Amino acid sequence: MIYNEAFDFLFGQLAGNGVDKDATRRLKNYQRKRLQRAILARSIKPVILEASWENATGAAGEATVASTLPITQPLVVVDGSIRTTDIGASGSADNNNFEILMLRTGGNSRPQVSTVYLKDEHLLTPAQLAIREVFNNAKLGYGNCWPLTWPVPLGLYPNELLQLRVNVLEGGVPAGETTFCQFRCLALDKATPDDAFEADLRRSIEASPIQQPRYLSMFSEGYHSIAFPATGADQRTTAKTRETSEHLLITSYATLFARPTAGGNGSACDPKWRLHSSSGWAFSQNEIDVNTYSYAGPGLFWQELPFPFLLPKGSSLAATFSTRGAITTELERIDNYVIFRGVNV
Amino acid sequence: MKAYHQSDLLEVLISMARNPALVADAQLQAAYNEKRCVRALKSLRSRNIFLYTEGTRTSTDLNNTNTIYTQPAGERLLVLGYSDNFRYGAVTTETAAGPNPTALTLLQTHRVRVVGGNERTLIDDFVPAQAGVSGQPRYTNAQLVAPTILEPNEQIAIDLGYDPAGGAAPADIPPQAFIIFCLRVKDKLSALDQETFADVQRFINAEPVQRSLFLNCFTNDPSVGAGAAFNAGYQVTGLDGGSAAGQLVSCFTPPVNVPVLITGIGSNLEASKLTISDLSDGSSFSLNRPMQSSALNLPGYENSTDLTTAGAPVVGPNWTSYYALPMPHLLKRGAQLRADIVNGGDAGAGPGTITEQQVITQLVFQAITV
Question: Is this complex's ipTM strictly greater than 0.95?
Answer without folding.
Answer: no
